[in-house]
Write a structure and sequence with these properties.
- The chain is built from 8 helices and 5 strands.
- β4 and β5 form a beta hairpin.
- It is an alpha+beta fold.
- α1 crosses α7 and α5 crosses α8.
- It is elongated, with a radius of gyration of 21 Å.
- The longest helix is centred in the N-terminal third of the chain and has 23 residues.
- It has a 5-stranded mixed beta sheet with strand order 1-5-4-3-2.
- The protein has a single domain, classed as Rossmann fold.
């Protein structure tokens, strides 16, 4: 138990160190004055993905696999007795390698990012100058419980966020900064984590805080 406690605490400090490192590597640009910031209205949020974007999100993958299985769209293979076999790891990989599976993950993440803007960020900007936000996701990683028990891991989102004038399309602000959420490692840490918000919520909360700080939302 003492060893697991040490691993749990060590995982916490590693997550903090990673968050500090991500903050240090940030590149941001904001050409708007405080007065101009008060005048903006976030009219729309568009989430897109870099050509080499990677999403590693086990719970969402399992959600999609369960959905297609329930709908009878999962691969069905028969054993030597002629009866259907239970889905194997190969079947799971086959399901998740389809364009439909990747679109499901991307749409789900895009929806959560837009939700963060509508709840946490856009309400602070109710001016008259319409702005458009473009979010280009490069990677989204949610480590599985097994990974965190054995190796540790931190939920992370890397995205390029750009603010553009809706009328002219001119870029007025840009944020290139990774977001990291807190996560405990080891058996004890993963068990303790069950009482806390989901890992995706933690990293998206961190992203919202980064954007709010960047735009100086009060």
């Amino acid at each position: 138990m003492h060893f697991e406690f040490v691993r749990c605490v060590r995982g916490m400090f590693l997550a903090v160190a990673l968050a500090v490192a991500l903050a240090g590597c940030a590149t941001s640009m904001n050409s708007l004055s405080n007065v101009e910031l008060e005048q903006i209205l976030i009219e729309s949020v568009d989430v897109r993905y870099a050509p080499d974007a990677v999403i590693w999100w086990g719970s969402a993958e399992r959600e999609y696999a369960a959905k297609v299985t329930a709908e009878g769209k999962a691969p069905t293979k028969k054993g030597s007795n002629g009866l259907p076999k239970e889905n194997s790891a190969d079947d799971y990989r086959e399901i998740m390698s389809t364009p439909e599976a990747q679109a499901y993950l991307r749409d789900k993440l895009a929806g959560l990012i837009k939700q963060r803007f509508s709840q946490d960020i856009s309400p602070h900007f109710r001016g008259t100058r319409a702005m458009r936000v473009e979010v280009e996701v490069h990677s989204f990683t949610i480590p599985s419980p097994l990974q965190r028990v054995a190796l540790g891991g931190t939920p992370m989102l890397f995205a390029l966020t750009t603010l553009k004038d809706a009328a002219t399309g001119k870029e007025v602000a840009k944020l290139d900064k990774g977001a990291a959420g807190m996560a405990f490692g080891g058996v004890l840490g993963v068990a303790l984590d069950q009482a806390l918000p989901d890992l995706e919520d933690r990293v998206l909360n961190s992203y919202s805080e980064n954007v709010s700080e960047w735009l100086k939302a009060s």
